[in-house]
Known about the structure:
By secondary structure, the chain is mostly helical. The protein has helices at 2-12, 18-44, 55-72, 82-106, 115-145, 155-164, 171-206, 223-231, 234-264, 271-296, 298-307, 310-318, 323-358, 366-395, 406-431, 438-467. 40% of the residues are buried.
Amino acid sequence: MCLRLLFATLSAGCSADPFYASIILFVGRAWDAITDPTVGFLVSRSPWTRIGRMMPWIVISTPLAVLTYFLIWYVPPFEDSKVIWYLFFYCLFQSLQTCFHVPYSALTMFISSEQKERDSATAYRMTIEVLGTVLGTAIQGQIVGMANAPCIPGPGEILADMSNSSSGLNGTDHVISLEHTRAAYMIASGVISLIYVLCAIVLFFGVREQKESSRPKSEPLSFFQGIKLVMGHGPYAKLVMVFLFTSLAFMLLEGNFALFCSYTLGFRNDFQNILLVIMLSATLTTPFWQWFLTKFGKKTAVYVGTLSVVPFIILVVCVKSNLIVTYIVSFAAGVSVAAAFLLPWSMLPDVVDDFRVQNHEANGHEALFYSFYVFFTKFASGVSLGISTLSLDFAGYISRGCSQPAEVDITLKVLVSAAPILLIMIGLAILYTYPINEDKRQSNRKLLQKQRDEADSETDSTELSNMI
């Protein structure tokens, strides 16, 4: 969501060309390719402190991330270096966000050693994350929506307007509207920054890490040794690919659904409500998927949850424009969004457990697994934006146009239906080869418990010998 809003802010800056916005976003994605595994590597080597090993990263990065986030939306008073301004603060924000997100995600492995408790924590975390997205979407949509710049008529619409009115277009009104849009983005960013800080405070006072004193970290690995160790674990590599393809599918659907509703379906004034329906549906159904995975297993839940959206996204492009059908499809999309984002995150601790069983001498590398997961989430978002931007530009998309060419309608149908379905099928085909089923999970749980008991016994024996 932040990527598309940055695009809008650059447009609100009047002089910024969409090409430069694309460059900024591309460089930001490339920068993420470096920062995500780097932060994961540094976090894995962090020493234990009085407040934990993950928490110092969260505490330090939060105020800096909030400041840079606010500056992303600020339109500087100069023109020549405006692109450099946005590029610098966008890359800095991405780095600070990584310093927060990687340890925050990895906390799941440090709040409990029990699989059920970690699954419950993951479900709770994803529910709150989706709820936060709903809140951010509502705030951003309501504040910015009240100060949206007017759409730009096409040549035919201008001629028709001039034939009906001698007043034509009022350039002053357009400038005023852009100024209002800039102010609205600043207000919205300030409110969201405040929510960011409040959530970080709740996290700091509400979560405690558990230190596994009986399992000391193994000898520090070099950066490339850590990457090779993590990516060389087969189940993890397969799960990452599943996550990448399914995330890309749903990001294409979500990222283009607003344009699809506005131009192809003609619901320009309803798309904010439609997006809220998607997010609310995802929030409400996340606990259902948590129950479903405990009842039927995680792989089954992924298949059922991800495939459930396919009939509805076929329906929305085949049936004539209908607002009720659109809301039904939006609700169904939200149900699948909850499954697509909860379940891969819920499966990640199982992969880490499997890695521990197979490499019982290699401890303390959990953050590396989560850092690559975070990276591929951002990578899917960047690829989704790149595919959408290039496809729509090739089709002749008119930025903020009141209407679009017929080619844009066809492109939007592909981006919200055919492309996501293809990506979903690829992801689920890879999932078929994923080796960790429920039996394997339970076997790993027992083996890890045995390893912990043996480690505790050795620790007690050592302490007793030292006393004697």
